[in-house]
Amino acid sequence: MRAKQFTFLCLFLFFDFWAWGQDFQFSQQFSNRLHVNPAFAGLRSDYSIAAAYRTQWRNLDNGFVTQQIAADYKFKNKKTAAGLVASLDKTGKAGFTRTQVGGIYAYQTALNENFSASVALQASYGSQRFSYTDLIFGDQLNDNGSINPTSQENYIYDPISYLSVAAGGVLYNNQFWISLAAHHANQPDIGFGIESKLPVKFTLNTGYKFYINNYYRDAYLYEFSITPTITYTQQQFFKKTDLGLYFTYTPVTLGLIYRGLPLSSNFMYDQSVAVITGIVLEPFRLAYSYDVVFTGAGSRTGGAHEIAISFDKIDFDKIFKSRASKKNYKHIACPAF
Hints:
This protein has helices at residues 2-19, 33-36, 316-325; strands at residues 47-56, 64-74, 80-90, 96-110, 116-130, 160-172, 176-183, 201-208, 210-217, 220-235, 238-249, 252-261, 271-281, 284-295, 304-313. The protein has 337 residues and is mostly beta strands. It has a single domain, classed as Beta Barrel (Porin), CATH 2.40.160.40. Strand 6 (160-172) and strand 7 (176-183) form a beta hairpin. The chain is globular and about 75 Å long.
């Protein structure tokens, strides 16, 4: 057990040095679409509530655990929407915890007969801290294998707080979308004791839905479709490209995502394939995914499990009325998971 704790602490410190404050990421990007881009608020439904749980690197004393809850609401004018995102990110026995709560305001409008757009701003309050309860330092280890209950280490890292600002935009029609977001635009200071700026994170996401067959029954869309997606993430020196392919046959969606395609970076990152399964049981959506890691440190420490559940309310009658009066009515075509 002591060896695992020591190994995990070394890995945590090593990756903290090389990662320059990277944010956590979800495999189920569209189950957690407000985490990807605040401009997704109000695009998929009139209102929704979603919760996600992700755990990875379980072989190292609980590894990394991330929890998030998000909600969005489209106002009656159909032009504006609001959202809320709250997350908790913990690094197992390393004792590091980051909590963040953010509010979103989004505005949507039709640009022409072919495209609509959404733009949004997000302001978040964050806090992070260390907990030394489960850590073992060198002066606690005795030659006979026993452990001293106390350490002479000075616990100087007091919790710190920060304000983070994000902005995003989405251009979309009934089959295509492209999304660009910038998180931590103000580069908040998250350092313990010394200044450490959180770099701006840019996320570019796009995709196209190919309908093999689709029809409406009782104001509900049934579809058989294939949707390829691309997501590019850059945060200072960290660069990553993910390729996704989703198959939807109502009410089931299957997805495959190749994460960490080494296209534009000189650094070696974990590469994995995420397998996503989702089902829609109106008004609920349930999804599970597993990341199979085959390169990097993650290949020796276990994969990643992710579970998401959401409640989505869509007024299909209003959609049909809007389509009847405005032939250029658009809805976002991105997958639900």
